[in-house]
Amino acid sequence: MAATNGDGPAVWDEARQLGQLFMMGFEGTEISDQVRTLIEQYHVGSILLTAKNLKSAAQTTQLVLDLQQIAHDAGHPVPLLIAIDQENGGVNSLYDEIYIRQFPSAMGMAAAGSKKLAKDIARATAQELGSCGINYILGPVLDVLTNARNQPLGVRSIGDDPLEVSAYGVAMMAGYQEAGLATCGKHFPSYGNLEFFGPPTDVPTITESLESLSQSALVPFRNAIAGGIDSMMVGGVAMSSSGVNVMHACLSEQIVRDLLRNEMRFEGVVISECLEMEALSRNIGISGGTVMAFQAGCDLILTCRSLSVQEEAINGLKAGLDNGNIERFRIQESLNRILTMKNCTSWERAFAPLGVENLTRLQPLHTNLSTAAYNKSITIVRDQKRYLPLSRTIQPEEELLLLTPLVKPLPASANARLHQDSAELSVSDPGFSWDPNASVMSGERVFREFGRAFARQRNGKVSHTSYTANGLRPLHETLLNRAAAVIVVTADSGRNKYQNGFAKHVSMMCKLSLGSIGQMKEKPCIVIAVSSPFDFAADTSIGTYVCTYDFTETALQAAVKVVYGEISATGMLPGSLGHKHQSKPTRQQWLVENFKEERDAVALDTLLRESARDKGRSAQLLQNATSNTFLLRNPSVDEAHFVVRNSTTKQLFGFCATYYSRASKTGHIAAIVVDPGRRRLSIGHSLHDRAIRALLQNEGIEKFQLGTNLPNVFLGIPKGDVAEYKVLRQWFAKLGWNVSLSTTVCSMSIDDLATWAPPEGLGKALSSADTKFDQVSGAEYAGPISDLLKRSRHSDLVDMYKMALDNKESSSIIRAKRASDGSVVGTLLMLKYDSRITRYVPSMESGIRGCISAPVISAHDRHSLLQGLVLLGVRQLKRQGASAVVFDKVNEDGALKYLYELGFQVVHTFDELNADPQHWTG
């Protein structure tokens, strides 16, 4: 419903019209007399929810529903706008550990370097808010940090580059809108040049001229307007420069009407800064401020807290209208704009929030998105002495010292609620000690869990204590002398100068430390800035410097993984600082060529034999592998293999095998093999880069996977050798794989079928009147099996099953069928030693081994069906004369227990890794 240019429809009496022009907040987590009065008596059409109103996703959903019901019952013709600040990082009004995901701050998203990722996260944030019934987000922040170092906004801003702020701001805006939320750019004309906020009665002042603002600070606002932003919040700042002298921007016709409306041609809703800010209310008063804001061109007047003040604002607008200070056509103009923005909702939507059920559905996807975003945002600005990863710098038996400041947790962050309770937390992690003499302050526990995470990750001793403005104490000196490496955390040291001095002092002590025999030996010192990255961005005296952009629990967990090399730090400082101070280490680039069988097969056989003689679990897996192991020659699979070679001697220095399955739209990196004598020369890096580029050329590719069971050499990163496993995890992490989100898989075997017998009574226990097992072979059975693969979402196994069906002499399929309707509910491949598939399983080299593979089950009693399928397969292979049986790939999802009962033992274990192709293109 929209008003017209004269009087509005009959339902829009003056009280309802004026009520639509206000956004107001209230106290409490339930419907209060205050908010009921605002909605019922004054017909306020927009409600601002803050952290003080919200306890959980379920409570928020019910609160919003109650608010809308009150508005409907009070005769509101259109639903309420329900607004919220949810900027991510440390500024989230709605927090729910289970249902609402934590995402990086705006600057953290810029550091991650992907505008698509920023848009995806904005959409995810809006989807979660929308599920709770919220329809209006006060974002994105479009301020350009033209004065970054002493800037109160800090990481709430994207950065100091107007074009970068524009690009990410518009991407976030689009993400919010795609999920159905109205958007609000803030804080026009920019808070980015504020030196500091002084006493509450002082107004922060912008001293830049309008010409200067137009060339920098206003660029993101102009681009957001062009992109279709719904509303704009005008800040409560003063402006003083040639040509402009404004006490409060949101009360100024020169800023709102002339600059924003006329010059920048913004047609959406203009919302004022909260008129209850002390500097504004004390100097002008709420009534006068309301009239001035409306005269300036604001459409929506914001008052946040007190009912008496809110009533004063409403009465002030009425008086301004009665006195002729405000013309009635202005009411209609603002009403039209607000109603246009309310197209984001309807009574039908308002009364049917998707709620916790939808949040549960979104949770896995958004959890992965959050983890990926934080992992990509962590930035290693400098590592001059190459102390990172720390796992190769200090030994497990040596002590690590963590020094953290005492600060308040970020508002509504993952830990803020926990810190309201000052009770001590138990410390049960082995190798972790906490200084009990440190005074308990609210920010302490944010970092206490940080210390525990370090202790858990390294399996070694971690000592952790805090520091304050009192500086270095004897306790600090004792711990420093004892530690083999030191981590100092700072949180916005530009405005907490003691942190800056403390970090520099500790860094200098580490440089001057003495070794065990009295010689000078520099001790590794790592400084981690967990808020503003500007703490030491330009200060090269801090040799190893890492930035996280917020100190939420998720960010700090990602930082721990970066410090230990579990993930690769790919983040870049945003804006000009990133271009000026960050550089990536160079490495040798090798010429990578396509593998040609007629030219390279013999040389590959030699490389595989030499690599198999090396030490470590990876070498064992190459036993009996030949060039033919990697050549599938399957028309359903696109294979592309690459080599680094000596064109003169024909020797191969390295080999990489890749496959693209059109059925599952998955690209596999199945093996990277480098000549043992030429490792650490970047050959593997060059092969990996070429493989990624090649896989990205496959149209429609949806997933990357490190590891494959066809050929069955490497199912992922081998885990058998602990030292080798750590090195390989770190290596792949630096290549961009998120090793923290791996899936554990293994290969298993029964090595002596001659003496094997199933557990007594198991066959009878597994028998069921409704489930029958049989063995079939041949392409004529493809139909029902194909249907099962589709139902079970096992498109990754389509190629293997097709090969087995086409090779009926040596390959069979064990089936589980429902007797009631004959439907196939489970299958398993059973392969004889001479099967076409087993040539790609080097562990079957003896020629008398059988193989079972690729179980697919679509019924609820999964484990009993798996046991039944496997039991029949093993029995059949034993009857056919196999001396042993290999189960080539098993997901460790609870099935191992049931396979152990059948006599299987784990042979090799792997970390299977998956990735989104966008990770290498975004």
TrEMBL record:
Q: Specify the superkingdom.
A: Eukaryota
Tell whether DNA damage is among the UniProt keywords.
Answer: no
- The reply to whether DNA-binding figures as a keyword in the UniProt entry is no
GO terms, biological process: carbohydrate metabolic process; peptidoglycan turnover
Q: What UniProt keywords are attached to this protein's entry?
A: Glycoprotein, Glycosidase, Hydrolase
Question: Which GO terms of the molecular function aspect are on file?
Answer: acyltransferase activity, transferring groups other than amino-acyl groups; hydrolase activity, hydrolyzing O-glycosyl compounds
Per UniProt, residues of the Glycoside hydrolase family 3 N-terminal domain are 17-340
Q: Which residues form the N-acetyltransferase domain?
A: 638-712
- Please report a single Pfam family linked to this protein: Glyco_hydro_3
What family classification does the UniProt entry report for this protein?
Answer: Belongs to the glycosyl hydrolase 3 family.
- PANTHER family xrefs: BETA-HEXOSAMINIDASE-RELATED, PUTATIVE (AFU_ORTHOLOGUE AFUA_8G04060)-RELATED
**Name of the protein:** Beta-hexosaminidase
Q: Origin organism of this chain?
A: Cyphellophora attinorum
